[in-house]
Write a structure and sequence with these properties.
The chain is of the alpha+beta class. The chain has one domain (about 1-90): Alpha-Beta Plaits (2-Layer Sandwich), CATH 3.30.70. The chain is about 30% helix and about 30% strand. It has helices spanning about 15-30, 65-70, 75-80; strands at about 1-10, 40-45, 50-60, 90-95. Strands 2-3-1-4 form a 4-stranded antiparallel sheet. It is globular.
């Protein structure tokens, strides 16, 4: 299984509007691609950065499904955000693979 993590540091001035858009529009659009089995959104409590930091995580069943997302959908979805958010956030993406998580429980 693959975890696609997007970390976003968002300016406080647009935080509430951005959070609403993420929860009610963008995450649904990503999930509608069919490339991910689940998702979650986390707020970073001890971020050393200015602004508010979130991690949005998407779980894919395979690297092939993630690659399908990356090659067919990601550019358009990343570009499709409200103009009011321009220059008010930074983001970076991390791709991870689950390693026998069952043995830790």
């Amino acid at each position: 299984m693959i975890l696609y993590n997007v970390t976003i540091i968002i300016d406080e001035s647009i935080h509430e509007r951005w959070l609403n858009w993420m929860q009610n529009v963008h995450i649904g659009q990503v999930m509608n691609t069919g490339c991910f089995a689940s998702n979650r959104m986390l707020k970073v409590l001890d971020s050393p950065n200015e602004g508010i930091t979130y991690c949005v995580q998407y779980v894919s069943d395979s690297i092939e499904k993630y690659n399908e997302y990356k090659h067919q959908y990601s550019a358009a979805l990343q570009a499709d955000f409200p103009e009011e958010f321009s220059n008010k956030f930074v983001s970076f993406r991390t791709l991870m693979e689950f390693i026998d998580a069952d043995e830790f429980y």
